[in-house]
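Need residues for this backbone.
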């Protein structure tokens, strides 16, 4: 190949890498509406591949097995969305109590700020129901635009099951294509890498799912014992948000804390929720995730955190969810070529560095 005979200076190699990164980021931003459903469909396909293979083992045609997997995925998503929407709607019944609580807190804050700083922001007046209604009426246009933009972005969700179906249907075809791309490598080795990659992503997704179920049970139990309304909803939402490292748990506990502060008559409840949630997160971080998820993705903490920032900046919440398994895929791909192995080492953990270094360096 031509690339094997080119001996570019180091500065040109660095420049080419920078240009490639800039072009890639631009491509990811411009193609967000298509690429996010494509990646999501791919990960759902990996998740349901074992089910499809099981059905095909009993002579179920691949088209039918892919369609059944698709229906099951849609049913699970629709059920989850219905559960969330139903609970959000039920929150409206607590609006009167919330308004009264806001007025009470606003009066206390107004009194304290006026006594200590001579400032009165009239928070109690702003917390009244009529004020909130007038505010919503005045800003209805911007709220409507936000809702329309949100619905518009959600329209891309329709593509996810479509992509998932085709990934399941043509998975062998895609495997053969990858083998042809790396035709200078041993086909058996490439197929082994692809199989290993599927297992890594599948184990990661299943492991995260198990952790989410355990967290949901712990959260629901804790909130129920404290007497927090909608304990099941808050427990499940907190477990789902935990899929986003670092920032997900923060928003997962913020919802029940805010709700308990506004609807319950004591600060004990939000403080207790915070303490219990922190205990649960400690158990999750030090026991559940290491034991269940383990080192499936083998990404170092710095790259993971940096990836979350970049993924969030480019694709929002979807990017923060997709970035970890995507980087795990890239690490496996980088390991297929000697020229890209340094990038695989960069993404991986420090304890695995020796497998990338020459033998004379590992023996020092």
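Answer:
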């Amino acid at each position: 190949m031509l690339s094997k005979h080119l001996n570019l200076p180091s500065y040109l190699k660095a420049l080419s890498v920078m240009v490639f990164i800039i072009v890639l980021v631009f491509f990811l931003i411009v193609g967000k509406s298509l690429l996010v459903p494509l990646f999501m469909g791919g990960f759902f396909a990996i998740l349901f591949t074992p089910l499809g293979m099981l059905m095909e083992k009993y002579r179920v045609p691949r088209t039918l097995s892919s369609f059944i997997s698709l229906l099951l995925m849609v049913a699970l998503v629709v059920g989850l969305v219905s559960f969330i929407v139903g609970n959000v709607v039920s929150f409206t019944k607590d609006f009167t109590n919330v308004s009264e609580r806001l007025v009470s807190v606003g009066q206390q804050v107004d009194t304290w700020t006026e006594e200590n700083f001579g400032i009165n922001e009239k928070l109690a007046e702003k917390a009244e129901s009529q004020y909130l209604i007038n505010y919503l009426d005045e800003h209805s246009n911007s709220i409507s635009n936000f809702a329309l933009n949100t619905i518009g972005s959600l329209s891309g969700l329709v593509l996810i099951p479509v992509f998932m179906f085709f990934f399941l249907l043509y998975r062998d075809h895609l495997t053969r294509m990858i083998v042809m791309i790396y035709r200078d490598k041993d086909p058996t080795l490439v197929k082994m890498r692809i199989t290993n990659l599927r297992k890594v992503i599948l184990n990661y997704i299943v492991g995260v799912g198990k952790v989410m179920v355990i967290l949901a049970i712990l959260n629901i139990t804790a909130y129920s014992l404290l007497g927090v309304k909608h304990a099941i909803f808050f427990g499940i939402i907190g477990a789902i948000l935990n899929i986003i490292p670092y920032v997900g748990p923060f928003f997962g506990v913020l919802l029940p804390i805010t709700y308990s502060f506004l609807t319950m008559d004591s600060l004990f409840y939000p403080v207790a929720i915070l303490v219990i949630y922190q205990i649960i997160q400690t158990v999750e971080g030090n026991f559940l995730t290491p034991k269940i998820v383990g080192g499936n993705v083998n990404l170092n903490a710095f790259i993971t955190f940096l990836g979350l920032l970049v993924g969030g900046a480019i694709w929002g919440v979807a990017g923060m969810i997709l970035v970890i398994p995507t980087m795990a895929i890239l690490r496996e791909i980088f390991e297929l070529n000697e020229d890209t192995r340094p990038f695989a080492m960069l993404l991986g953990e420090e304890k695995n560095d020796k497998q990338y270094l020459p033998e004379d360096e590992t023996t020092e």
